[in-house]
Amino acid sequence: MNHAEEDFIQVTDGEIGLVSPKDFHFSEKFVFESGQSIPAFSLRYEAYGELNAKKDNAILVAHALTGDHHCAGVHSLHDRKPGWWNSMIGPGKPIDTNRFFVLCANCIGGCQGSTGPMSIDPITGKPYNLTFPFVTIRDMVRSQKILLDSLEINGLYAVIGGSMGGMQVMQWAIEYPNFVKRIIPMATTWRQNAQAIAFDEVGRQAIMQDSKWLQGNYTEGEGPDVGLAIARMMAHITYLSDRGMERKFGRRRPDGKGNRYSFDIQFEVESYLRYQGESFINRFDANTYLYFTRALGYFDLAHSYGSLDKAFQDLKCKALSVGFTSDWLFPPEQNREIVLAMLRQGVQASYTQLDLDLGHDSFLVESDELFNLVRDFLAS
């Protein structure tokens, strides 16, 4: 570490600072819920704070569809922005790294260092592509448990996440009831409704109808960028809200754009969505997008366990569910249903609904209300 990096860590009060990802390798066969298997797998993860002597102060953060393991700190002094939940995680922050050992792993099937469709199949010597097994939320959780076992972690103080991360949070509590003490699922659902499934199918079709998709057999750097960008643009709309988009963009036009007839960018919101699509293709893999959106659709706790109540019958953890009034992708009532089912099973659970106008992505923004909720729940 050079002196500039040391200065960065010392003078940045309340921040994690420079972090480096780690790679966990599991050299045994992993069987997916589908019955398919791979001979080994890797998970890329980051860890912040210190594991205590009892190894019982660990908090696992689960990422959403297009997230990854890098949820806090920076990899370089030249990074444009820190990890995706940097406002929530760090010294003195709601998830306090002075107190907790915090981990976040890129999900199996991902494209940010964990084994996924673009990884090399050791048997063929070629990328898995669509021969990679179908992935479920349960597969993600089971692979993460193998990682935690390798670290000799005796239990999780809490599991926290939003959206697809919230699904993992609930699956953790169901799959390992004696291992998890607290859960905070946010902006999530116990099963996708038809509308959410439909939006994901449009995104998948945008990718699969791109001539460069090649039935999933494209090479890295030459994939279906147009289709993936469109999928991202469309999905990103579902992460926002009408109220938030009106406040942020309205009908404003970019500088220098007059009232002219053109199919070029005419409104600021169009420019914003194009930027979202163009930046996304530089960090995400199209096949992973297909696999993860399928995992979202397959997640249905009532179907898997007979009913939602039965899914939660063995829970031993405390739970806090957070919904957001402007979230129309996974609406507040879906988050409330989770808590009601838990309460019917005698689980110590509570529900809070926050009136933020940023839609589904509200769990990612800086909010004193949300910060205080998380901080207080973790202190209880």
Note the topology.
Blueprint: H1 3-11, E1 22-26, E2 30-31, E3 37-38, E4 41-48, E5 58-62, E6 89-90, E7 95-96, E8 101-105, H2 137-150, E9 156-162, H3 164-175, E10 182-186, H4 194-208, H5 225-239, H6 242-248, H7 268-280, H8 286-298, H9 301-305, H10 308-311, E11 318-324, H11 332-344, E12 349-354, H12 368-379
Helix pairs in contact: 2-3, 4-5, 4-8, 5-7
> What is the count of DSSP helices, taking H or I runs of 4+ residues?
12
Strand content bin: 5-15%
How many β-strand runs? Answer: 12
Q: Nearest-angstrom radius of gyration?
A: 21 Å
What does this structure look like?
With 380 residues, the chain is α/β, with parallel strands linked by helices. The protein has 2 domains: 3-193 and 301-379, Alpha/Beta hydrolase fold, catalytic domain (Rossmann fold); 194-298, Rna Polymerase Sigma Factor, Chain: A, CATH 1.10.1740.110. 35% of the residues lie in helices and 15% in strands. The chain has 12 helices and 12 strands. It has helices spanning 3-11, 137-150, 164-175, 194-208, 225-239, 242-248, 268-280, 286-298, 301-305, 308-311, 332-344, 368-379, and strands at 22-26, 30-31, 37-38, 41-48, 58-62, 89-90, 95-96, 101-105, 156-162, 182-186, 318-324, 349-354. The strands form 3 sheets. Strands 1-4-8-5-9-10-11-12 form an 8-stranded mixed β-sheet, with helices on both faces. It has a two-stranded antiparallel sheet with strand order 2-3. Helix 4 packs antiparallel against helix 8 (286-298) and helix 5 (225-239) crosses helix 7 (268-280). Mean pLDDT is 94; it is low at 1-11.
